Amino acid sequence: MGGLSVDPTTFFRSDGKRVSGRAVDELRPVKIEAHVLENAPGSCYLEWGKNKIVAAVFGPRECHPRHQQRQDRAVVRATYNMNAFSVEDRKRPGLDRRSQEISKVVSEALAAVVLTAPFPRTAIDVYMEVLQADAGTRCAALTAAAVAVADAGIPMTELVAAVASGKVGGTVVLDLDKYEDNAGEADLPMGITSRTHRVVLMQMDGNFTTEQYHQALDYNFAAAGVLHEKQRDALRSRYQTVAARQPQEGGAEAEDPGASSEEE
Ligand code: ADP
Question: Is the pLDDT of residue 2 over 70?
Fold first, then answer.
C-alpha cells in the first residue's frame, strides 16, 4: 500500500481510498468467460475479485416433479451452492436457508428476462457453484447465470447483472469485499437489466439514510452498466469462436469471421 497509513477503525487510507486500494465507487476486477463446460448446453465462469463461480444451464426440458410444471410457460429453477472449500473455514455442505434464499431470488430475477411462454410445461435449470467466496457471491452468481442462459441459446429479452453497494465506517462504497463485509453496516444487492434498466433483484441488510440509499442506487446502476458490457464481451467472444469453427461454403474454415462480415 505504498506506505500509506490505514486507520483500522475507518476502512479508509489517508488518501481516501479503501484498504484494498479501490476508490469508493470502484468495482473489484471482473472476468467473465462463456461456455467453459463441454457437458452443459450453456455455461459461464466468472471471477469477481476473489470470488470464483461456475454456472451451468440445462433446458428447456421436461419438468419433474410434474406438480412444478406450468401449463403456460417454462419454470426457471436456479440452484445456488457454496462449495465446502469455498470459504476459509470449511462450509457444511448441502442446502441451507441462505442457499435456498439466494436460489429463490436468482430464479425470480432470471425469470424476469427469460422468454418462458414458448416452452410450456418445461423447466430451465440453472446451477451456480461457488468455488471461492469473498462477499458478493449472490450478485456474482446471478451475473454468471445470465451469461450461461444466453450461452445455452435460451431466448431472453435482455441480460441481467447484479452488484451490491454497502456502508462501511458511515460511508457508502460499491462492491464490498469480505474484509469490508465483515464489519459492513448495510448492504444493498441489486439485479439490474441491460436494456430497460429494470430492477429484478433487490435486497437490503442494515440501514441507510435516504441520501446514502440514493448514493448506493447510483453506484449500483453505474456498475451494472460496466457488468453488462463485460457480459456482452464474453458472449461475443464465444460466438466469434463458434463462427470461426463453422465451415464456409466449399468446406474451408473461416479465418476471421469479424472481418469478413464487416466487409460484406
Ligand atoms: P453474499 O456472498 O451474496 O455477499 P452473504 O452476505 O450472505 O452473501 O455472505 C457474505 C460472505 O460471507 C460470502 O460471500 C462468504 O464469503 C461468507 N459466507 C457466507 N456464508 C458462509 C458460511 N456458511 N461459512 C463461511 N463463510 C460464509
Answer: no
What's residue 242's pLDDT?
Answer: 79
- The atom of ligand 1 lying closest to the CA of 51 is 14
Contact between 227 and 30 (Cβ < 8 Å) = yes
Check pocket membership of 61 for ligand 1, CB cut-off 6 A: no
Q: Is the dihedral of CA 81, 70, 160, 191 positive or negative?
A: negative
d(CA 246, CA 229): 26
β partners of residue 191: 162, 201
Any residues with CB less than 8 A from the CB of 178 and at least 6 apart, and which? Answer: 50, 133, 134, 135
Average pLDDT across the chain, whole number: 91
Degrees, nearest 5: CA angle 127-131-137? 75
Assign 210 to helix, strand or coil: helix
- Decide if pLDDT at 22 tops 80: yes
State yes or no: pLDDT of 260 exceeds 50: no
At the topology level, CATH places domain 30-246 in Ribosomal Protein S5; domain 2 (3.30.230)
Domain residue ranges of the chain, discontinuous segments joined by +: 30-246
In this predicted structure, the answer to whether residue 66 has a pLDDT above a threshold of 60 is yes
CB count in 10 Å sphere of residue 4: 12
C-beta 17 within 6 A of ligand 1: no
Output the residue whose Cα is nearest ligand 1's atom 14: 135
Q: Is the CB of 136 under 6 A from ligand 1?
A: yes
pLDDT greater than 70 at residue 257: no
List pLDDT tens digits, range 195-208: 999 999 999 999 99
- The pTM for the full model equals 0.91
**Strand runs labelled E in 17-120:** 30-34, 42-48, 51-62, 75-82
